[in-house]
Q: What sequence folds into this?
């Protein structure tokens, strides 16, 4: 098996994956438009390429972890327009299915195979190889990638036709959006009740009321520290817009998910876009303080 892989996009997720693969004996060739990220990953023994085409020349399998549809399409066009042999291109990003299909069509027209394989997990989980790969597309190509997936994720599955990976990711992120805000609300309730917040984390997390998001984000809320971000609020807002559009497209109402959206929007308005999504706790804290500062709407009780 050729243990050479290319990674285009060395941000929070792509960078963590690259370093884990190097640790497991892979020759990783990476590229990112950010020179600082290229330099940082080079110090971790990732081979840094000049551009996306340079990655494709050396790597039979390429993974893309990109921030926007425009970036994904630009990479697809660059690879398709080059003279490299047929490649498997594994798209890991969270994008609308229509954008994934455009990405695949560009590559397939040039003889390459595109897979839709978004990831479930945060940057912190990526560092710990605690990701889940939602793979979809050509089954033979997915089978060729399973050894690769096993070296940076704890679980992966072939979900069938191209696009099913994204559909599964939307379902997962729908829950993440709710659990994150629910965690903030629970921690605020605990704080107002006078409980030791660290004890709440220790005792609630493993119990029936706990969740992966509670276990990951509640400690950040206790400390009030939201950097470095495992998922930036600004990126998450982009993902939520995709999920909302998808739910509308399939005719599914999502009342709880919809209720969380103003909380994330307010976090952005508070200037928390570069901080971790756990910072929604600051929104609830501010709202309580604002509520306490408002004059009471109850009639005063005068003694007779």
A:
């Amino acid at each position: 098996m050729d243990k050479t892989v290319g990674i285009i996009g060395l941000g929070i997720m792509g960078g963590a994956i690259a370093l884990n693969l190097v640790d497991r004996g892979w020759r990783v060739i990476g590229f990112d438009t950010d020179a600082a990220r290229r330099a940082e990953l080079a110090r971790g023994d990732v081979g840094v390429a000049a551009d996306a085409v340079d990655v494709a020349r050396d790597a039979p399998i390429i993974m893309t972890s990109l921030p926007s549809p425009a970036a994904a399409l630009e990479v697809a066009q660059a690879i398709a327009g080059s003279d490299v042999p047929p490649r498997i291109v594994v798209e890991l990003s969270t994008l609308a299915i229509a954008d994934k299909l455009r990405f695949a069509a560009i590559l397939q027209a040039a003889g390459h195979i595109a897979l839709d394989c978004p990831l479930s997990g945060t940057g912190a989980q990526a560092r710990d190889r605690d990701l889940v790969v939602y793979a979809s597309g050509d089954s033979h190509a997915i089978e060729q990638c399973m050894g690769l997936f096993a070296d940076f994720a704890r679980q992966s599955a072939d979900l069938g036709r191209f696009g099913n990976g994204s559909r599964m990711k939307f379902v997962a992120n729908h829950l993440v959006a709710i659990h994150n805000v629910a965690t903030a609300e629970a921690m605020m309730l605990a704080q107002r009740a006078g409980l030791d917040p660290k004890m709440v984390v220790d005792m609630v997390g493993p119990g029936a009321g706990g969740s992966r998001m509670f276990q990951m984000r509640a400690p950040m809320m206790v400390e009030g520290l939201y950097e470095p971000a495992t998922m930036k609020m600004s990126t998450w807002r982009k993902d939520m817009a995709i999920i909302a559009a998808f739910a509308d497209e399939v005719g599914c109402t999502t009342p709880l998910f919809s209720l969380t959206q103003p909380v994330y929007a307010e976090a952005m308005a508070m200037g928390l876009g570069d901080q971790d999504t756990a910072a929604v706790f600051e929104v609830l804290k501010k709202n309580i303080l604002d509520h306490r500062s408002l004059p009471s709407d109850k009639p005063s009780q005068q003694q007779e």
Observations:
- Residues 296-304 have pLDDT under 50 and may be disordered.
- The chain has two domains: 4-162, 166-293.
- The domain at 166-293 is CATH 1.10.1040.10 (N-(1-d-carboxylethyl)-l-norvaline Dehydrogenase; domain 2).
